[in-house]
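Checklist before submission:
- one chain only
- standard amino acids only
- sequence pasted in full

Submission:
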Amino acid sequence: LNNLASLRYDQCEYAKAEANFRDALAIARALYPQRSVGLARSLRHLGAALLAQGEYAKAKPYLLEALAIYQALYPKDRYPRGSPGLTENLGDLGSMLQAQGEYAKAEPYLRDALAMEQLHQYSVAEWAAEAQALNFAASLPSFLDDFLSVYTAVCPTTALPMIWFGSGGRL
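Returned file contents:
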């Protein structure tokens, strides 16, 4: 069901994807414990489908519930790189707030997502062959553009050095 919903999402059939993601979420709530990656993933996917339709108020509770689960499963002190789901969830929340013009609120989400993504990049660069590392870099989420838009509005002098030098917001 998630695969069908993802296919519909990728084909920009967001209303159909939303319906499938809602069904998948109902199944996930019945099958998974309250604090599971499967449940968090289902919540995030539904939130993303709602975001794609501009339904920010409806998307927010799903994204925040997913964030709470991911943060409980991957505490920053034990998992500084978080997880791909956590990174994408932070990026979704930041992008949503950015689209609503709430740049100051978007910035911490996008900053954390960027920092985690940079740690993922460094990890891949350490062990992967060059072609694998380049493929990984090409597949990165698009929230980097959102981060630059938001951060240049909030703090224009440090946005680009933060990206280029990989400090994840810690200059």
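Reviewer check: The CA atoms of residues 40 and 66 lie 4 Å apart.
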